[in-house]
Amino acid sequence: MKDAISELRYQALRAKLNDHHYYQPLGIDSSLLTETMLNDLIASSASYKALQEKDAQQADKLGALTAELQGLRLENPRLQAENNALHLQLIEAGEATERHQASTRLRLHGLEDEVETAKLALQSASHESLRWEKELNSLQAET
Fold it and tell me: Which parts of the chain have pLDDT scores under 70?
């Protein structure tokens, strides 16, 4: 029975070898080693094909990413220039706002000074008016 199993294994191995175009003679004593090596070869071939497919997919991905990168490289200088221009506008607007605030503060201080002067003039005029009123009352009382 063991010989029958060995013979079946030998026949199956011989069929596999023939499928892969290995027609050289095969002895029964080396069939176990040959079977192991053939299985390793088949597994290696399958792995190699899978790696080739993965490599092709990665190459396609790389091509797409390279094209996208090229587009970004073309767009980046324009965006940097636009960003720099906007930044400069922000700086200039900030400086203009600061100048406007400073001039507004100066104007406000000037107006506050005018108001203070007007208050003093009003107060002086009020005192003068009161003095004249008292003088008028005393003149009227004399007459």
Answer: 1-2
